[in-house]
Structures are given as structure tokens and as C-alpha cells.
Automatic annotation (TrEMBL), chain A:
This is (2Fe-2S)-binding protein. It comes from the Bacteria. Keywords: 2Fe-2S, Iron, Iron-sulfur, Metal-binding, Oxidoreductase. SUPFAM superfamilies: 2Fe-2S ferredoxin-like (SSF54292), CO dehydrogenase ISP C-domain like (SSF47741). Residues 2-78 form the 2Fe-2S ferredoxin-type domain. InterPro entries: 2Fe-2S-bd (IPR002888), 2Fe-2S-bd_dom_sf (IPR036884), 2Fe-2S_ferredoxin-like_sf (IPR036010), 2Fe-2S_ferredoxin-type (IPR001041), 2Fe2S_fd_BS (IPR006058), Beta-grasp_dom_sf (IPR012675), Diverse_Oxidoreductases (IPR051452). It comes from Algoriphagus oliviformis. PANTHER family: BLR6218 PROTEIN, OXIDOREDUCTASE WITH IRON-SULFUR SUBUNIT.
TrEMBL record, chain B:
InterPro entries: Ald_Oxase/Xan_DH_a/b, AldOxase/xan_DH_MoCoBD1, AldOxase/xan_DH_MoCoBD2, AldOxase/xan_DH_Mopterin-bd_sf, N-heterocyclic_Hydroxylase, OxRdtase_Mopterin-bd_su_IorB, TAT_signal, TAT_signal_bac_arc. Residues 211-306 form the Aldehyde oxidase/xanthine dehydrogenase a/b hammerhead domain. SUPFAM superfamilies: Molybdenum cofactor-binding domain. The keyword Membrane applies. Keywords: Membrane, Transmembrane, Transmembrane helix. It comes from the Bacteria. This is Xanthine dehydrogenase family protein molybdopterin-binding subunit.
Length: 152, 754
């Protein structure tokens, strides 16, 4: 066990955990930020996507020891009022079915748009291909990303 | 206007008398932590709530709370079912809050999500509950104003007596209405007068989902809660021999390791008591990560399980003995055994005319065999559950489609009476049939009982994918007899699987062909199976509709025209009895998809396949357009035509339809679970290929037939026909027929990229 100072959603937080603990479980079990979801544990499904210094990363493969000096953003901190253009577009297109993967999808989409404000269909396919949606909302996700892109 | 007797769902009115005059707030949620709605922040909360029946509470300020009784797994019943209540209650949707009900059979009918029956079976009870509450508000106003009830009208939460100019909001009359007797009969609206039904409403949980609020059982936490992981045998046909607790007892954060058994010896199982490994090991500790680490380090010995038996309660009070065979099974051997049935008779399920004689006379026989593998459900949220068992009281909060079924299992496993067990319903991160089998809740409850503390148990993805309850593997052989002029003389299907047949012998094309024979067979296995989106239909539709496509080609007919001819025959002069489809509605979706896809105006380089199917009381026809781009098959567009009667929430209905189509394309191309020596060969998403963004269709259109019929199923019916629409479209693109799912390996053998 060791103490780690983390910068999460603009707040500094301290946790006392094993250095190998993935950020996913630090967020969920220790900091009660449960919007970041557990899906596969091997970075294959994208449900646990968060931003590390603005880049989309899979938190299930990010040990807490590697996250200490970075700026971490989770779905809870993407916007203060839940009105990030991606979140608004998700509501406009009524994207979610079960909803479980959507936080990860939104975090991947927001990171994509931050780097590429006007992505093409194939840019979207490439950036989002790591996020599985078992309910199959892919066509709506794509439409919502295009809408968000216009409202950045 | 239709008049209905409110006795239909008396159960939902039981509490009204108990509340009479009290106007008390009745909270039947044991888990306050899971409730706050984003909308609540926008609506002013009333000082007092008045409950008119189990589903409806009205605040003194006119805000309305509607209870959503069915478990939500993504089909959006939490929005659409309250819409039905709101329609007949006649309120403004903007003033409605929706709350997830817990499992409460004394108050709610049929708290089950599955079989695409939520809207169909909820339709009348929910309309009646809404209309009854509205009528009670009308009667309260009539009494207060001293005017005839028949002269009072309602609009969007307001009562009005035009002649006297009196007007009041529902909130002003709610207190008086709650004291009235429930009227014996109430009037329901005409379909044409619907204001809310048929007008798309956003998902009531949408804002919570996009902001990451806790909604799922996996998100639940209480003070003093422990975390648990499980270890189950690595293969079907194996069981626990022993484990060495000391191998992990020194690890950080680990509190206890013990084994649990789901069933007591003399327990008679129910239909949904399917669990692959009735004895597993539980590891309890302080955090998910710590128990997952211990799980990897635990020393366990497994052994081969002998053949075993258990008693199962059937429908209508019968019991049967179920045998679980011994042995470690292999997919290669499964295929060999299924292939034997191409030329081996099964059980005759239906025979019309003289099929054997007609085949003897045939000038030509077309025979094709189709197969599909086992499939894992792979819900994005792995199996998990929260449980808090102390003494003779239990609270279980988990993702389940079938709380009523698991209640009996919990009672026997815990030895606690039903009255002392509270099951709360979490939003599910996917279901697809898998969570009708909710033994994860029993496992969590047994772990909590052992440690006498609240616990959250979670499966790893590997636990989830290798724990069984799969879609079975199937095979079907179709034969058609043609005369020298290519007229269809006879039709024969022989279909089976491990361990069940997928046959629906009374469905199309039964009823359309004079000489028809349907046979079924099955091969026992210890690999557990369960409902998977449109059970049996999800295979047989693809086989049948692929065969009809090839048959139409053989007969020189357009595939839609050929089906319409058969349906005309079934409508005008049906063969046999018990044909369980309406030919005109079936034809209706084929005609609609022909129009919407512009079937008769094909585009160059676009390969099209069509398919249609009836299941879950609904009719669906689909056209899939494929193009080969950069040596890769790309699904460019999918057109679906659906007849499911009245569509309650059209945009959400289209969303679910789109999802079913994507699910079908994914499983047609990639879906497969295989076994070596009883071991599932795929354990996580690195090996089990799921459809992803790149493979999703570029465009999907879902069109609904507008016929005002009572609503029927929707979550499943769009799924089964996709497989054949894909196969038939690929045939046009590559010149090869696809008989064996998944299709990707065969496409790769044709040097196409997948």
C-alpha cells in the first residue's frame, strides 16, 4: 500500500492503495466515481475510458502509480452541468439503450472531438472502434458525434 | 371509446383503501440511494403525494410520479410503459417523474422483462390503471363542484366543467380522489385520440446515463460493504474437489474464502434455475481489485463431475427429472453428431399431405443444411449483485429480468421466508435473455449470509463468458421437391440442436405448401443453455429464409414475389391447422420493405438480400445492402419494415430495432463460442469477436406499419431475419452461399478482409 495524490476532475484526491491498482478500481471503489464502468479488464471494450491529460485511455490498464502527475477527467467531470456538446448530442439522438457502455463512448468521442473537431465517418470509426456497444447503438453514436461536432 | 372492467388488474388498486383519507406518502423503496432523477431538479416537489393506485402518485402541485414496474435492460420500458399510463391518465408528460419500482408482486402485475411481452401484456393493465386514476379525479371534481361527472373533461392534467366555468389541476383534486372507491368500469381512449403514445419521448434515464450517475447494481455501495469475487470450474463437466485457503489468506485486503452451494439437495428447481456450476468458491475482501488478485492466486483442485440428476417443476404442476450428462465435450464432436441428422430421422412434429410421396415423384430436389454455433450473451455489465443478509432478513439488489423466478431460489438457498426477502431492481447493463437466470443474486446472498455483512459480488469478464447459459448450437436441413416445370411440390425441414430443437413447425411456410413435413431432434449435453434474444427463431429464421432465397432462385422467381405467392396461398386456401401467423400481415411487411428499399430499382454494385420472419407476435421484413469496398464486405444500408401494432415510443422503438439489426449482423459475421475438453475456447473480448463501430451498417431505416392494432413484441422480432438478409446479400456480392455461421471465416477463405 502507498499514498497517491491524484488530480481528478479538477480536485486533488488522496488514496492509499497497492501501486498496481488500476485507476478503474481506484475511481469506483475508493473515490465513489462509478460512472467509469468495468467491462473486460483487458482494454478491449472501452467501458472504462477516461481522459489522462486529455487523451482517452482505458482505466482498467492504467495503474494508479502511473497516474499521479496527470490530469484525470472522468464522465462525472466532463462538464459541470452535464451539458458538454457530446452529452447534449447523446440526449438529442436518444442514443442509449442499456446505457452501460455510454460513459466510455462519450469519453472517447469527447477526446476525438478535442483533437479533431470535424471528424469524417472513417475518423469516427477509427477513434471509436475500441468501444463496444452490445446493444448496437453505433449508428446513433456516429450521428451524435457529427451533431456534437457542429455545436462545439 | 372502450369500456373496461377495472378488475383486470385489481392487484394494483389494493393499497388504495388502506390509504383512503390518509393521503400518506407510501415509500416502498428500500434503497433511497438509487432514486434521484435529473428531472426532479427541474420540477418543484409537492408537499404531499396522494397515491391513486400502485402505479400513480399525484402531488398537491400537480406533479405526477409514475411507477415503472418492469425491470429495465435497455428496451426502454422505463419510458414507454409509463407513457401508456400517462396517456390514459391524461397528463402533461413534462410534469411526469418516473420511478423504478422494486419487486413487489402484491402491487404490480408481471414484473418480468423477456419474450418481448412488456408492452403487449402491459397494454391493457396500464391503460386501465391510468384511466381509473383519471376517472377518480373526475369523480372527485364532480363531488366537489356538485356537477355531473359526465360533464367534466380532462386535458393534460387539468379538470374542467365548461358549463359552470370551473377548472382545477389534478393536484387540487388528488387528495379527494384518493379517498374514493375504485370505479368498477372505466372508459379507455380511442387510438386516434392518443396524445403521448405515438409521440417520441426521450429516455427518462438519459441524462443520468450521459453524466455517469449510479444506476446499475455494480454501482451500488453501502457503509461497511465488502467485495467478493467467485471462482468456478474451468470446464463444463467439472466440479470442485478442494481448495487451499492458505494460498491467499495472507494477501492484502482478503477477509475470507469459502465455497457456496446454490441448491439444497431436495430443492425442486424452476424453469429459470439454470446454473452451470451449482458449487463455487467465494473470495471476500476490502476491494474489487484485491479479491480479483486473490482469485488468480488461489490454489484449487477440480475433478470430473459424474452424471447427475435434479427435479424440475414444469408448467401446470408437473415435475420432471433432468439429467446432466458427464464428460468433457468438444465442438468438433458436436458438429459430427449434428451432421448425422442430415440423413437420420427426427421426431415428426407436423405433416401435411403426402410429403414422402411428393419427394418420390419430384423431378428435382434441392437440399441444403445450415448450422450455427453456441453464442455467449456477453452483456456489457458482467453478472454481479449486491446483497445484505443479516439474521432472517435479506435485501438483494441485482440485475435481473425475472425477479419472481429467483425469489423461490433465494428462499430455499437462504432458508429465509419470502416475506423477509426484498428484491430491488437495478437497471441492467444488457440482458438479451441472460439475466432471466439470476443465480448471481443467490450467490451474492449466500456470501452475505456467510459473512453477515453487505457485499457486492462481481464476475470478471472471464467468469461471465465461461459460465454458460449460452444460445444452443443448431443445425437444420431443408429439402424442396420440384416438378419438371419448377413447381414446388413438397417442403421438408429437419432441425435440431444441442441440446434442443429450434423448430417452429407451425410457422411459415407451413400452411402455404400442400405437402409439408417438419421433424425435430436434440442431443443432450452438459453445456447449459438459456434464452438468447428470440430463442430458436434466432437460428431457424436464418436457415429458412436463406433456403427460400435459394429456392426462389432455383424456381426463377424474385425472392419477395415468391414469398408473397406462398403467403397468398396461406391466406386464401391454407393448408393444415394451427398456422400461427396472419398471412396478410406477413405480406404487408414484405410489401412495405419492397417499397422503402426501392427493391425494384436496384443500384449498380450494391448487393441486396431480403428476409422476413414472424415471431413474438410481430412481423418483420428486412433488406440488407452490401458492397465490396477495398476487398471487404461492407453493410451499406439496412431497411426494416415492422408490424408490431401501435408503436408507443417511435424513436426509441426504432433505436431498439437498429440495435437488433446490428446485433444480428455481428453474430452472423463473428458470433461463436466453441469448446475443447469442456473448456470454452473464448474467455474475453480479445478472442470473442463482437461487432464494433467499423462493421456497423452505414445506414439503418426502421419503418413501422401504421394499423392501430394492439401492440405486440419488438425487442426480439427484428433480430432473427437479419442473418438470412446478410447471407442472401453476401451471395449476391460474392456468388457463394453461406450455410455455416459465423460467416467471417468463410469470407476470409475467399480472400476477403473481415
Amino acid at each position: 500500500m502507498a499514498l497517491y495524490n491524484l488530480n481528478i476532475n479538477g480536485k486533488s484526491q488522496q488514496v492509499d492503495v497497492d501501486p498496481n491498482t488500476p485507476m478503474l478500481w481506484v475511481l469506483r471503489d475508493h473515490l465513489d466515481l462509478v460512472g467509469t464502468k468495468f467491462g473486460c479488464g483487458i482494454a478491449q471494450c472501452g467501458a472504462c475510458t477516461i481522459h489522462l491529460d486529455g487523451n482517452a485511455v482505458r482505466s482498467c490498464q492504467l495503474p494508479v502509480s502511473a497516474a499521479e502527475d496527470a490530469k484525470i477527467t472522468t464522465i462525472e467531470g466532463l462538464s459541470e452541468a452535464g451539458d458538454h456538446p457530446v452529452q447534449k448530442a447523446w440526449i438529442e439522438h436518444d442514443v442509449p439503450q442499456c446505457g452501460y457502455c455510454q460513459a466510455g463512448q462519450i469519453m472517447s468521442a469527447a477526446a476525438l472531438l478535442a483533437q479533431n473537431p470535424s471528424p469524417s465517418d472513417s475518423d469516427i470509426d477509427n477513434a471509436m472502434n475500441g468501444n463496444i456497444c452490445r446493444c448496437g447503438t453505433y449508428t446513433r453514436i456516429k450521428a451524435a458525434i457529427h451533431t456534437a461536432s457542429q455545436n462545439l | 371509446m372502450t369500456t373496461v372492467n377495472t378488475k383486470l388488474n385489481r392487484r394494483s388498486f389494493l393499497k388504495v383503501s388502506a390509504l383512503a383519507g390518509g393521503g400518506m406518502v407510501l415509500s416502498f423503496s428500500w434503497l433511497a440511494g438509487c432514486k434521484p432523477a435529473a428531472k426532479e431538479e427541474l420540477l418543484a416537489m409537492p408537499k404531499e403525494w396522494f397515491e391513486l393506485n400502485s402505479y400513480i402518485k399525484i402531488g398537491d402541485n400537480g406533479v405526477v410520479t409514475l411507477m415503472s414496474a418492469n425491470p429495465e435492460f435497455g428496451s426502454n420500458v422505463k419510458t414507454s410503459m409509463p407513457m401508456i399510463l400517462a396517456e390514459e391518465l391524461d397528463v402533461d408528460w413534462k410534469n411526469v417523474l418516473v420511478e423504478q419500482a422494486d419487486f413487489y408482486p402484491e402491487r404490480f402485475d408481471r414484473q418480468f422483462t423477456g419474450g418481448s411481452q412488456g408492452i403487449r401484456q402491459g397494454w391493457k393493465p396500464l391503460r386501465t390503471a391510468g384511466a381509473t386514476a383519471r376517472q377518480m379525479l373526475v369523480l372527485a371534481a364532480a363531488k366537489t363542484w356538485n356537477v355531473p361527472a359526465g360533464e367534466i373533461t380532462t386535458t393534460a392534467g387539468t379538470l374542467e366543467h365548461k358549463a359552470s366555468g370551473k377548472k382545477a389541476g389534478y393536484g387540487e383534486m388528488a387528495s379527494a380522489a384518493a379517498t374514493l372507491e375504485v370505479p368498477e368500469e372505466v372508459a379507455l381512449k380511442e387510438v386516434k385520440d392518443f396524445q403521448i403514445i405515438g409521440n417520441s419521448k426521450k429516455n427518462v434515464d438519459g441524462q443520468k446515463i450521459v453524466t455517469g450517475k449510479p444506476l446499475f447494481a455494480l454501482d451500488h455501495k453501502v457503509e461497511g460493504m465488502k467485495y467478493a469475487a467467485i471462482v468456478h470450474p474451468p470446464a463444463f463437466g467439472m466440479k470442485l474437489k478442494s481448495f487451499d485457503k492458505s494460498s491467499v489468506s495472507g494477501m492484502t485486503g482478503i477477509q475470507d474464502v469459502f465455497s457456496i452451494s446454490i441448491f439444497k439437495d431436495d430443492y425442486q428447481r424452476n424453469f429459470f434455475d439454470t446454473t452451470t456450476f451449482p458449487e463455487i468458491i467465494a473470495i471476500v475482501g476490502n476491494s474489487t481489485w484485491e479479491v480479483m488478485q486473490a482469485k488468480k492466486a488461489l490454489t484449487v483442485e477440480w475433478e470430473n463431475a459424474p452424471e447427475s440428476n435434479f427435479q424440475m417443476a414444469g408448467w401446470g404442476g408437473n415435475t420432471s427429472t433432468v439429467t446432466v450428462p458427464a464428460g468433457l465435450e468438444n465442438s468438433a464432436r458436436h458438429k459430427e453428431r449434428m451432421a448425422e441428422y442430415v440423413h437420420k430421422s427426427g421426431n415428426v412434429i407436423r405433416r401435411d399431405g403426402d410429403p414422402e410421396g411428393a419427394f418420390k415423384k419430384a423431378a428435382k430436389v434441392l437440399e441444403r443444411t445450415y448450422s450455427a454455433p453456441f453464442l455467449a450473451h456477453n452483456t456489457m455489465e458482467p453478472m454481479n449483485s449486491f446483497a445484505d443478509v443479516k439474521g432472517d432478513k435479506a435485501v438483494v439488489y441485482g440485475p435481473t429480468q425475472a425477479p419472481e423466478s429467483i425469489m423461490g431460489t433465494l428462499v430455499q438457498a437462504l432458508g429465509i421466508p419470502k416475506e423477509n426477502i426484498q428484491i430491488n431492481l437495478a437497471r441492467m447493463g444488457g440482458g438479451f435473455g441472460r439475466r432471466a437466470y439470476s443465480h448471481h443474486m443467490v450467490e451474492a446472498a449466500l456470501i452475505s449470509q456467510q459473512i453477515q455483512a453487505p457485499v457486492k459480488m462481481v464476475y470478471t469478464r472471464e467468469d461471465d463468458m465461461t459460465a454458460g447459459v449460452y444460445r444452443p448450437t443448431y443445425s437444420a436441413t431443408y429439402r424442396a421437391a420440384l416438378d419438371e416445370n419448377n413447381n414446388l411440390l413438397a417442403f421438408h425441414v429437419r432441425a435440431g440442436g444441442i441440446p434442443e430443437t429450434p423448430l417452429h413447425a407451425n410457422r411459415f411456410p407451413a400452411g402455404a405448401i400442400d405437402n409439408y413435413l417438419a421433424e425435430g431432434w436434440d442431443i443432450p449435453s452438459n453445456i447449459t443453455i438459456g434464452a438468447f434474444r428470440a430463442p430458436r427463431s434466432n437460428f431457424i429464421a436464418g436457415a429458412e429464409q436463406s433456403f427460400l432465397d435459394e429456392l426462389a432462385e432455383e424456381m426463377g422467381k424474385d425472392p419477395i414475389e415468391f414469398r408473397l405467392e406462398l403467403l397468398k396461398r396461406a391466406e386464401t386456401n391454407p393448408v393444415g391447422e394451427n398456422n400461427d401467423y396472419v398471412p396478410s400481415r406477413y405480406a404487408g411487411v414484405l410489401e412495405l420493405v419492397r417499397e422503402k428499399s426501392k427493391w425494384n430499382a436496384p443500384q449498380p454494385n450494391v448487393s441486396r438480400g431480403v428476409s422476413a420472419y414472424f415471431c413474438h407476435n410481430s412481423y418483420v421484413a428486412e433488406v440488407v445492402d452490401t458492397v465490396i469496398k477495398d476487398n471487404q464486405p461492407v453493410v451499406e444500408a439496412v431497411y426494416a419494415a415492422v408490424d408490431c401494432g401501435v408503436v408507443v415510443n417511435p424513436d426509441a422503438a426504432a433505436n431498439m430495432g437498429e440495435g437488433a439489426i446490428v446485433d444480428g449482423i455481428g453474430n452472423a459475421f463473428f458470433g461463436e463460442m466453441a469448446f475443447e475438453n469442456g473448456k470454452p475456447t473464448k474467455t474475453n473480448f480479445d478472442k470473442y469477436r463482437m461487432i464494433r463501430h467499423r462493421e456497423a451498417p452505414k445506414k439503418i431505416e426502421v419503418h413501422f406499419v401504421d394499423n392501430g392494432e394492439e401492440p405486440t413484441g419488438l425487442g426480439e422480432p427484428l433480430f432473427p431475419p437479419v442473418f438470412a438478409a446478410v447471407a442472401n446479400s453476401l451471395y449476391k456480392a460474392t456468388g457463394k452461399r453461406y450455410y455455416e455461421q459465423p460467416f467471417a471465416p468463410q469470407l476470409e477463405m475467399q480472400n476477403l478482409k473481415m
